[in-house]
Write a sequence for this structure.
């Protein structure tokens, strides 16, 4: 096993590398303007879809047979809500996509801002131009998700693209002398570009009419039926419909709704024919109906996502995906699959491409064969698509064999999804590790992106940084996942442990251990570094309270203070309150400041340091030797100790570093100031530093940073050794933890 926990088998790693490469390629596709706009817009309209689908289920649920009829007054209210959510979702999608196209235009433009609302206005106009006459009866045809989504995709994309192009090529009216209202001047100048888009759609409408169709809907429906009905085989038509629907969904386009005309004509006609045959005493002959597809090829939503949920619950290890899956289950029971599609995501996900497209096809074939052999009867009962799985199979077939068949298909689908769930977990883990390494490298480089240290990154690294940043804020607020570890500081000449430095750790439930450098950078990006520091101080003082009775008044805990904290006018009172609540002496707390704080000549900062020192709190300068601190500040500031930075002592000491360390040790000895040398990793390094005059050290040679209980055990063992052997220090006797 390697550090990531992935078996180092060439074949498996090759598979993971292959999928990781495909993920990178799909990320590039997903970063294209169309797909970015499509994803954002569908997420923005998603609340309407969920609310509408759930209430559609309530309106079409067989309450009369099972739970009793819904009162008419409530039916009317539910219908109004459905009309105001699901019934206008396509129009909302058009507006959302156009607006997001406008936002993307401003990002790609020359710096001139164009109101995104203009894109919405023009797209709406073009939308209604293509449709033609609109009244209350036809409005639902163009506005609802089931009927209008394909045209919404098309119009918003084409109209926004044309408007973007026309603006970029300079289709404007010169309005430099048109007054002082800049917004009015902007809109007036863009009239030629807007007219150009409207004329294009007017000509498109004329072309559609010349072809013999009243509007774009008729043309689109004709094309869909021609493509999906290329032969007389009902089985092949249904197979091609399922394949087309899944392929559309994979690229982020609502498959069933985009192919709604095939549903409303071919599939509905088959169901009507079956019902007519039953009523006439005959035998139904059409296996392919909408209810057949909904029950057996799309249980839980397109992609047979009920099977995917079961596979994730059984084999998934990624806590984030499992959390999304539990939330998705709430709407998956109504055959709504958008939470999984966008949450995992499944759209443009190369790992899930094959199962997402072909498992529904496998389910379709199994169900078709089972129906032809007579295992389940031909469906002759109309069941709304939002009816929960298993119940819909029973109501549609009128037999328990339909439920058994659906359960069998769901289990087969879950078994087929499981290997891909395992692969996806491993690929994502590897991708997360690579992303985290890149985020850490950016933090260490000191670069900034869009004014942020981490959150301004683009691509997957930016996603990780922004996700972590929001999780960090929640962790600080709830005081969970974050914890402290402590690294002892040892006086080898006296043979005793002086105290310990408190260090922050974060174990993220999805990403695991997060580097402290990344934690600080994220906290700075989120402007919550001060809250984080106060959390560290509270936890450290609480631990110091536990240790105080055992180790006496001289044992201290040192805590790093960020520079921004010294702008808080209430810093002194907050620190005093925390010390008082922990019931520890003030002199047992040591505050570590950076050289940038030491260099600051601000009266507020200097006064704060002096006041903290008067309370008895110790002050030390961390990472000494890395900045440009004037040596005179060691005299002028209330400093008790300096800590020599580990970059000067880590590994082999070259001539330059040796001279720097020796000079610092000599200087501090001459002015009677304590020194701690950080980064001591081995005995050879320790002996060299002792020959230079060092006596107080901190590093992995003595102990790695450990939780409070382990640190206490280490100190107890050290004290026990001192009682047995005296205070003389021998390097070989170090009790490494």
């Amino acid at each position: 096993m390697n550090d990531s926990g992935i078996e180092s088998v060439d074949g498996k790693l090759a598979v993971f590398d292959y999928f990781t490469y495909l993920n990178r390629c799909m990320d590039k596709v997903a970063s294209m303007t169309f797909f970015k706009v499509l994803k954002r817009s569908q997420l923005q309209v998603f609340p309407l879809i969920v609310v509408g689908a759930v209430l559609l289920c309530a309106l079409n649920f067989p309450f009369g047979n099972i739970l009793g009829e819904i009162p008419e007054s409530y039916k009317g209210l539910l219908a109004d809500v459905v009309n105001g959510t699901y019934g206008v979702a396509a129009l909302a999608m058009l507006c959302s996509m156009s607006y997001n196209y406008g936002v993307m235009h401003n990002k790609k433009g020359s710096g001139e801002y164009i109101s995104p609302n203009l894109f919405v206005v023009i797209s709406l106009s073009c939308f209604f131009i293509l449709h033609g006459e609109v009244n209350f009866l036809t409005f639902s045809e163009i506005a609802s998700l089931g009927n209008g989504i394909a045209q919404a995709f098309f119009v918003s994309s084409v109209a926004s693209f044309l408007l973007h192009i026309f603006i970029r090529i300079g289709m404007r009216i010169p309005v430099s002398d048109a007054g002082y209202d800049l917004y009015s001047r902007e809109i007036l100048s863009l009239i030629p570009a807007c007219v150009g888009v409207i004329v294009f759609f007017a000509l498109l409408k004329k072309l559609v009419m010349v072809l013999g169709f009243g509007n774009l809907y008729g043309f689109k429906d004709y094309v869909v039926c021609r493509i999906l009905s290329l032969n007389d085989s009902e089985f092949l038509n249904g197979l091609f419909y399922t394949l087309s629907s899944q392929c559309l969904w994979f690229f982020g386009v609502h498959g069933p709704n985009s192919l709604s005309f095939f549903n409303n004509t071919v599939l509905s006609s088959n169901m009507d024919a079956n019902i007519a045959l039953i009523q006439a005493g005959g035998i139904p002959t059409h296996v392919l109906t909408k209810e057949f597809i909904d029950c057996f090829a799309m249980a839980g939503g397109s992609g047979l996502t009920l099977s995917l949920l079961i596979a994730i619950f059984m084999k998934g290890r990624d806590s984030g995906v499992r959390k999304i899956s539990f939330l998705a289950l709430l709407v998956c029971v109504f055959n709504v699959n958008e939470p999984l599609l966008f949450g995992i995501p499944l759209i443009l996900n190369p790992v899930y491409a094959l199962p997402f497209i072909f498992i529904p096809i496998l389910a379709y074939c199994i169900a078709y064969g089972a129906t032809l052999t007579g295992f389940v009867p031909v469906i002759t009962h109309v069941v709304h698509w939002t009816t929960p799985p298993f119940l819909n199979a029973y109501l549609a077939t009128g037999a328990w064999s339909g439920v058994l068949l659906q359960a069998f298909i769901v289990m087969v689908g879950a078994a087929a999804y499981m290997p891909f769930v395992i692969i996806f977990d491993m690929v994502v883990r590897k991708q997360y590790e690579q992303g985290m390494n890149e985020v850490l490298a950016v933090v260490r480089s000191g670069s900034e992106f869009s004014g942020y240290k981490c959150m301004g990154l683009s691509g997957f690294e930016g996603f990780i940084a922004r996700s972590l940043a929001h999780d960090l804020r929640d962790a600080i607020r709830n005081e969970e996942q974050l914890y402290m570890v402590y690294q002892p500081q040892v006086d080898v000449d006296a043979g005793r442990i002086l105290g310990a430095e408190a260090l922050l750790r974060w174990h993220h439930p999805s990403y695991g251990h997060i580097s402290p450098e990344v934690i600080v950078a994220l906290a700075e990006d989120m402007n919550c570094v001060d809250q984080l520091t106060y959390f560290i101080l509270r936890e450290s003082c609480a631990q110091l309270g536990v240790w105080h009775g055992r180790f006496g008044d001289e044992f201290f805990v040192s805590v790093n203070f960020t520079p921004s904290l010294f702008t808080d006018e209430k810093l002194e009172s907050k620190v005093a309150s925390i010390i008082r609540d922990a019931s520890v002496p003030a002199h047992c707390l040591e505050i570590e400041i950076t050289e940038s704080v030491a260099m600051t000549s601000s009266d507020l900062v200097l006064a704060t340091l002096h006041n903290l020192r008067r309370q008895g709190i110790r002050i030390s300068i961390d990472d000494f030797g890395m900045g440009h601190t004037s040596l005179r500040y060691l005299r002028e500031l209330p400093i008790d100790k300096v800590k020599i930075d580990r970059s000067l002592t880590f590994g082999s000491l070259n001539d330059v570093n040796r001279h720097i360390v020796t000079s610092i040790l000599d200087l501090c000895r001459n002015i009677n100031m304590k020194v701690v040398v950080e980064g001591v990793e081995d005995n050879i390094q320790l002996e060299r530093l002792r020959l230079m005059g060092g006596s107080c050290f901190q590093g992995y040679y003595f102990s790695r940073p450990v939780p409070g209980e382990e640190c206490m055990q280490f100190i107890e063992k050290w004290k026990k050794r001192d009682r047995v052997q005296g205070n003389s220090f021998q390097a070989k006797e170090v009790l490494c933890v």
Summary: The domain at 480-725 is CATH 3.20.20.450 (TIM Barrel). The chain has a mean pLDDT of 81.
